[in-house]
Design brief:
The protein is 34% helix and 28% strand. By secondary structure, the protein is of the alpha+beta class. Residues 3-171 form the N-acetyltransferase domain.
Amino acid sequence: MTMKLVRPTQHYREQIMAYRTTFLNIGEQPYGGSSLRRFDDFNKWLTKVIYQEQGDKLPQNSVPSTQFLSIVNGRLIGLINIRHRLTPELLMESGHIGYSIHPDERRKGYAIEQLRLGLIEAKIIGLEKVLVTCDKSNIASSKTIKKVGGILENEVISSDKDEIVQRYWIEI
């Protein structure tokens, strides 16, 4: 498997919107997608992604972040977003990196490679240690985070949902 992380462009428009639809249809959130679930207009989403990376026109309590697509053989396999810094809220629950894998592509080792590549990108933007979180019920994500060096710091109760969130730190 040769995965590469690329920035979203018009070239991937149809695949990105199909990815969104798949997650909406199964009632899941496409984590690591810069709120993709809220955008039925690709161009508006892409504009938001560009502003986020530049740090421009950010809503209150938002931070600059870089959006990547995880591509294997020209196909969108997953999304990963790297936040350049943390707010107190992000420090508690969401961390530096959010990611997801297309439901049809799970259990194939893609998440580990995606997160490994994401850590390389995090280092490029100057991060030396990153926080990655997941719901305690998401055993696959917990295993993924541990396989790339995540060390569990603690568990917290989510402020917006009744879930236990595990907080892992990874030294890059």
